[in-house]
Amino acid sequence: MGPPSSSGFYVSRAVALLLAGLVAALLLALAVLAALYGHCERVPPSELPGLRDSEAESSPPLRQKPTPTPKPSSARELAVTNTPSNWRPPGPWDQLRLPPWLVPLHYDLELWPQLRPDELPAGSLPFTGRVNITVRCTVATSRLLLHSLFQDCERAEVRGPLSPGTGNATVGRVPVDDVWFALDTEYMVLELSEPLKPGSSYELQLSFSGLVNEDLREGLFLNVYTDQGERRALLASQLEPTFARYVFPCFDEPALKATFNITMIHHPSYVALSNMPKLGQSEKEDVNGSKWTVTTFSTTPHMPTYLVAFVICDYDHVNRTERGKEIRIWARKDAIANGSADFALNITGPIFSFLEDLFNISYSLPKTDIIALPSFDNHAMENWGLMIFDESGLLLEPKDQLTEKKTLISYVVSHEIGHQWFGNLVTMNWWNNIWLNEGFASYFEFEVINYFNPKLPRNEIFFSNILHNILREDHALVTRAVAMKVENFKTSEIQELFDVFTYSKGASMARMLSCFLNEHLFVSALKSYLKTFSYSNAEQDDLWRHFQMGIDDQSTVILPATIKNIMDSWTHQSGFPVITLNVSTGVMKQEPFYLENIKNRTLLTSNDTWIVPILWIKNGTTQPLVWLDQSSKVFPEMQVSDSDHDWVILNLNMTGYYRVNYDKLGWKKLNQQLEKDPKAIPVIHRLQLIDDAFSLSKGTY
Hints:
Blueprint: H1 13-39, E1 72-73, E2 76-77, E3 79-82, E4 102-113, E5 126-137, E6 141-147, E7 151-159, E8 173-174, E9 176-182, E10 187-196, E11 201-211, E12 219-227, E13 230-238, E14 259-266, E15 271-274, E16 278-285, E17 291-297, E18 310-313, E19 316-322, E20 325-331, H2 333-337, H3 342-359, E21 367-373, E22 380-381, E23 386-390, H4 403-418, E24 426-428, H5 435-452, H6 458-473, H7 491-496, H8 500-516, H9 519-532, E25 536-538, H10 540-552, H11 563-571, E26 577-582, E27 587-592, E28 612-614, E29 616-618, E30 621-622, E31 626-628, E32 632-634, E33 648-650, E34 659-662, H12 664-676, H13 683-698
Parallel strand pairs: 3-9, 4-14, 20-21, 21-23, 24-25, 26-34
Antiparallel strand pairs: 1-2, 4-5, 5-11, 6-10, 7-8, 7-11, 9-10, 12-13, 13-18, 14-17, 15-18, 16-17, 19-20, 22-23, 26-27, 27-32, 28-31, 29-30, 29-33
Helix pairs in contact: 3-4, 4-5, 5-8, 6-8, 6-13, 9-10
């Protein structure tokens, strides 16, 4: 570079220093703004985007609303504020689980969606609501946390302490100083001017507003469809697993069960449905003089927030009575008129009766509504008293007599009805044990179908629908356990638990347990479990305890370890074992199945062993159950001779959750038998041999 030019613009030394100071101040201001923008994690509740967790900083908003004007609470002005996490001290709002300070007892919930048949929504559809939550205080606190997302809080009051025996008359109110929202943990925080008293009950009174979800089938959502040649709309809810907080402020955890009084305000031409039967109807006018119908419903039993359900629709229904309880199938008027709901109606009652008799526990609610939505991403939802289905899983046109379609509907209906006991009556304590809901509901859907169709090949059907697929997906190092030990899941991680491991592996665990015990012992233990934890919550260990009680009360079934130790070896670790039998020596060993050869052996752990039930056959004859409860063991009875007709197959009916390998002689004996008389080996085991052989070859076994 050459010397600077002698021509140009010159300033004095003082001016130069002033300009330099201004530039430095500007750069500092820009840096501060950039830092604040980059670290901001909260927005006002009226501007919450349709995001969760880490999506909030990188994705465009899905839903937005204008900022409301906060309304006064009593004599105070209710301040609805936001506090970025980097601007506040650490506190319970940073935790992923609610603090145990308040226990919800009862909700009075009113929702008013602005859906009109003559004004189908062209944009965002608003709704307003009020909820009064009766809570019991367990720890003195002046900060109340509950879940809320995508809502504006327009009023917040705390009444109490409530006086027992006087109809909840109160001795006063606790002033609310501030309300703010924590977006990342999805909390509404109420700051009180004085602490609540332990042992006392209070009523939280909250008014709120929100938007109906148009795109996702979460929270309160919209379906637009065509019926009888006209464009129509309905509203429905999907609150599992953590979407109740999208609709109303609540304690949105499965163990925090409460009773609910639900009121829906809707256009007079619509029908409102909820978990319980309609209690009454009245009429009210809005500020414009338009008339609306107010439908109230009976009080629910104790249940978690994720089972609360509501629908507002212009549907018809068919109905029948089963054991004194009404069953109604709701669908588009066209579908009801052409008989598409008849098949579902005809099978629903008998399925309820079968499960009532099996568990010796009657269905708890006075009615069951089942509704078919034109579009429902979750396919089906077991809401207590108001099950919601996608049309494809419920409706059958009379001209469509394909067995495959009927079978699909039967399985889906059976699964959701199974949830009325596993999930609704007894609920897992936290989402890490969601398999207690979904695994047993999945297992019993096959038991239901087998009961009504005993000629169907039950083992082959379970293999083709469940076991074959999950064994292909599940292998060590890259999959998760059925029962997760960690409890502090992020919201997005909770939703990810609704996967093939929860459903299919969970069902396989239940089936294996049933088979190494016996059907009577299995069902008796489940009866005891369901009766003990009715209207309550349970963990996996609670289930094992009831099985152990049943085992201890008899002497026929002898196990090598406790049920907990046996089943924890399957539910608390990922993958499954390969059982290898040397038929020459009778030596059996187990090792984790890997999809491919693992070159880095340091990735492997030394404690990946299972307590394995081995049901087996020799020369076509079923043999007594044995257990492989260590890495290797000798079973002399499994040795074979030189005879062409001497062969062994492990894993009878594929009831165990593992693959089987044999030494060269073992495979040779089976091959010889298949060539001479293939029918001597049952169909299920011919499927097993092919499936195991191909999978083992991929894993270089």
